[in-house]
Description:
By secondary structure, the protein is an alpha/beta fold. About 40% of the residues lie in helices and about 15% in strands.
Amino acid sequence: MVEKKDAGTFEQELEAHLRTLIKDGILHNNEVKLLEQISAAFWQDMINAEYEFTAEKLEKIINRILWTEGPQGTIQALTDIVSWKSPLEKYQKAHPYNTMERIEKKAKEITGLTKTPSAAKKFVYGIGRISETTREDEEFAFPDIDFRNPYHIQTENFQEQKIMFVNGANIGTRYKRDIVNNPVRQASACANKNNVDVVVASNLLRLDTKKAAGPSKALRALFSGREISVSILEPSYQKEALRIIKEHPDDEVIYETIGEAFENLIHGWIKITVKPDGDPEFTGKIIICLGVKEELIILADAYWNVRYYTLTKLNQIKAELKSLYASLAFAESFEDNEAEIAMLKEEIVAMHDQEARTRITDVTDEEWQRFVTRSLSYVVRKLEKAIPHSKVICKGTSYVKVHDTVIETHISSHVRVTDTLLSDYTKTCGPKVLRQELADAVVILHPHALNYRTVSRERDYGGHRGKPSNIYVAPMCVDGRFLRKAYKNIVNKKADPIAQAVYNEQFQPGVLQLTIMNGVVNEEVFSIESLQKECEARLPITIQDDAGPAMPALEGKYINVMVATDPHIGSPNREFIWCKELERNIGPDEAVFHLLRSAGYGASKNPPFHMVTINDDPDQGDHFEIHKQPHRHQMRYTQLEQEAKRLMERVRVTEDRYDLLNHVDAMRQFFLEQIHRRGEQWYTDQLLEFFRRNIRNNIDMYEGVLLRHMQAGIELKGVSELTGSVHDRIDIAAILMGTGNHDLKTTNGHFVPGPINAEYLKGLLWGTSRWIGKENELDKLVNGPVYGNNFIAWGTLKAPGGYEYGLDFRNSPPGGSINWGDPLQLAVRNYIVKGNPSTIFENKLVVAVVGDKHFKASIVTCMMWFVMGPPNTRTDGYGEKWSLPPNNTGVMFVCLPAEGPENAPLITRTLMFHDIVELIQKKKEINWETFFPKPL
């Protein structure tokens, strides 16, 4: 009796048999009859296993054998061959059992398939012309969009909206032919997976429209990624092109019109944004903002159209003149024909006048505008047809509105590679604030942006502090690693701006995503590698610690750091918020602790972050001699007496108890305000105020942070552990108490408060049962680092089984000087020349967190993430004296993906003073679970 097998077991045995046959070369011999042979050989087993054997199942098994997954699999091997344009014969030589037909089919899948056909391009006569246009194109016009009338985007979720900016794709640049790993395709898939509401795309195309100019044309071609697509060429030329491709003759080349080249780029967008089954990669709305490169294509097309029509007209005139001269000669052969001769000569003079007028320089401006509009219309139509659900809304800067949030999409007017994009824009903010035309967020879109960077600018009006504007530079969405390899053998890299950018040490491509939560705008920065990881269907990985229980999966988890720098306790300019529940004034950092405590966080429910750093100036000190600089709202004693008398008179005449309490409360608020505006001038009292306000009142939150840190199993190593030193004052810690220039100048460098504040915090914890006998552990978890007498802390940070970050925390950005338009710009330049003085930061993303300059700012480069936290103060007399931009005020959270920056986006979450006031006083709601990325 034949042993009965299930269908799965039988298929495994069948696959093993087929594997042997394929290895022996059966695919080269009789693949057509393979189905019949297998069916005949195994028919009894198939019946026994109730296995239905079909051609589809056979093909599926063959593909499973031929195309294996993983880094060492055959798919990756072929992908590498295809990506670098190596001959497919090289792959077949290494895999002789496979057929060239199957290899070519798989290669096409790798480079991209789509059901959208690519129609052959009709030949357009004339150099530089993209296509023929019609009178209808002259009617084209963009929507009327400006700051007061933005383009509205409707979303279903009123609490949270997401906008992704895919900038600087520059399709037409060299690219890795593996369509699955195309950065724009990955960004589209990531946007779809993460429920992004709208994608804004800009700086889409790269096309050399310059006329050939000797060897420089050949040099520019080395940077191009356009490949010959025979199906796009004019039909009558396709056969000739195929022959040249096949034979590679020594004395012939393939020619391509600019129109065919443009069609090639458009088809590239189709391959990227449309799946092989015809469905779009991103199913939501795509808004397109045309930039300077698209404008150059449009202008070139308009110019060459006008030139073509002009030359055509000139040739017509010359033909008519030739005919007129022939008629004149014929007329002059007859006698008594003066009238006809005179008429012909008059026509010839008129025709010569028309010939002289018909020059490209004599075309009227209105005609130029007409043909530019026609070319613009054509480009817009082609893009909207190629990219699903897309709408081209502008050429140049525009505005979009998502619910109540207005975003300026600022299109740069040049193509220079520079790190001044942010500071160039912020120089224009002052007049926009005065006109109340600075948007809630500004995204600078440049075709060759070096990296992501941001800074905030205050928007004060109506006698009150307004909601700050966040200004961003969106990075380029290109594969930087691939391009560095592709361009490595080109010496003159300055000939191409993309090559200049890619080889700049600041360069870090990626995608910017803005997340708006109840009107609070925050940002997430995806690296190109993290986009790929976001698109993968990954199974959660549980990290097993040999010394303890299983750790939670790292996927999607974050290590969150609270940056509460520059409290400036004792400053008359420290911002306070009146809290009715506590019946006292609290600063922004205290307010955030209070909000979290009110939401149930504290020692019993650990806060959703793992570290706290106070980088700079815990106290105001007397650096700028505040006793010699009275606050503008500070009243003299006699004025206080008069105001006290007036307030008391109101109390005396008030009979209603409710009104009386209101008057007394107003009196309390008035005198507390006046005391505050005098500042806490004695340095000792400032220290004591910091002890009470920041530490003692929030000891539950600090303890909760330490517990979260330990329970997450975070591995925090100070520089001493990494270098083998017995002791190092600048070891990183979970809670860092910093020191600033105000403290140093006040005490002439003899005293710094950071270590004292750290000891006070540890002393409070040592007195509790939880921490008895854990002094050594607390010493490692809480520190007040000093390098010389400055706050500098070095170390590394990682989750169990996760990525190891370098940490470089300081009181002030290194380098000394400052560009107020981009406060971290000079720090980035400084680090490029520094090397690795810490000796521990090699091959890591270094997170550099600073304070001191009183702005929210951030820059991501290839090796470092620079972050500047906002202070607790507003601008003072010193800042106004030097006409500095107004301070930002608030609290920032830096969120590090536990798996590393190549697996998930870098995230910052910031609550500015305006947001905190609304949360405390107006009881505006915030969902902390969604505000913070999933904490480890």
